[in-house]
Design brief:
With 277 residues, the chain is α/β, with parallel strands linked by helices. It has one domain (3-274): Metallo-dependent phosphatases (Purple Acid Phosphatase, chain A, domain 2, 4-Layer Sandwich), CATH 3.60.21.10. It is 29% helix and 18% strand. The chain has helices at 13-22, 45-54, 65-74, 87-91, 95-104, 135-150, 154-160, 175-187, and strands at 3-6, 31-34, 59-61, 109-115, 118-124, 191-192, 198-199, 214-215, 228-232, 247-249, 259-264, 269-274. Strand 4 and strand 5 (118-124) form a beta hairpin. The longest helix is centred in the middle third of the chain and has 16 residues, at 135-150. The chain starts with a strand and ends with a strand. The protein binds manganese (II) ion (MN). Manganese (II) ion is lined by residues 37, 64-66, 126, 234.
């Protein structure tokens, strides 16, 4: 039995199947962790969702910004953009079932796993974890957001939760603003500005970042201790590199022509499948 953490799928269904063949995935024994952004930009969002739904008992999925955008478009809260490629999900007879299921997926997953190096606590979110959050903060804030997304009033939640502002904890004046910032921390964050606000504009490489931008994972993170291992996706420009032993970037940009990556958590072995033409 092994746990595999898999990077941003973004509709790359054929690459997922090839990767699962490479790792000899056995749904009766193995567990797949998905770091979110299951859909969009790539060609086969519907097939990805149908497949993951069919093996959902063998999966730990956290939601990414594209997944939440899909939910909001499906619920007529947001408009589909010309860049969105999840029309197949919206047109599917299974749409409601799939979207209802997506709403039950959390924004984080925490689990202790026995590795070759002893017991480690793996923590997965889509984009990252803000430096000032403890594990308890993560659980509380993430579960609060999921509670609204899963509730009958999810439309009200989706109406106020999109937007880039406020981008600093000190600028949150209402509970709604704080939840918007918390969702952005979990699903969209890459860099902090020097004043402690998050920068949601620059998406590129760390070495080419303008001015004083610093990746979230370069800050001293309250959640880390010696047995913690963070897993995240969302940031294809990192190409899997954080230069931190205990923080793994899983998004290797399959939808952008690069590759889909899986890491076996028990020994941190990395497997990948190049983008298929
Ligand atoms: Mn993302």
């Amino acid at each position: 039995m092994s746990n595999y953490a898999i990077g941003d799928l973004q509709g790359c269904y054929r690459e997922l199947q090839e990767l699962l063949t490479t790792i000899s995935f056995d749904r009766k024994k193995d567990v797949l962790w998905f770091c979110g952004d299951l859909v969009n930009r790539g060609p086969d969002s519907l097939n990805c969702m149908l497949y993951l739904y069919s093996i959902r008992d063998s999966c730990k999925i956290v939601l990414g910004n594209h997944d939440i955008h899909l939910i909001a478009v499906s619920d007529s809260i947001r408009k589909k953009s010309t860049k969105d490629t999840f029309g197949d999900v919206l047109k599917s007879p299974k749409r409601k079932e799939l979207i209802d299921w997506l709403k039950t997926c959390p924004l984080h997953n925490i689990e202790k796993i026995i590795t070759e190096d002893g017991e480690k606590e793996f923590v997965m979110t889509h984009a990252g974890i803000p430096h000032h959050w403890t594990k308890e903060d993560l659980i509380k804030n993430s579960n609060e957001l999921s509670g609204y997304l899963e509730s009958k009033n999810s439309n009200t939640f989706l109406e106020y939760v999109f937007g880039d502002e406020p981008n600093h904890l000190d600028e949150c004046r209402t509970p709604e603003e704080k939840m918007r910032l918390n969702l952005n921390y979990l699903t969209r964050m890459r860099f902090y500005n020097s004043d402690g606000s998050i920068n949601l504009k620059y998406k590129g490489k760390v070495e080419a970042a303008p001015g004083d931008l610093k990746p979230w994972f370069e800050h001293e993170l309250k959640i880390m201790n010696q047995d913690t291992h963070l897993l995240f996706g969302h940031w294809a420009a990192l190409n899997g590199h954080t230069a931190k032993q205990n923080i793994t970037a899983l998004d290797t940009g399959c939808a952008w022509g690069n590759k889909l990556t899986a890491m076996r958590l028990e020994d941190l072995s990395v497997f990948s499948c190049d983008k298929l033409n």
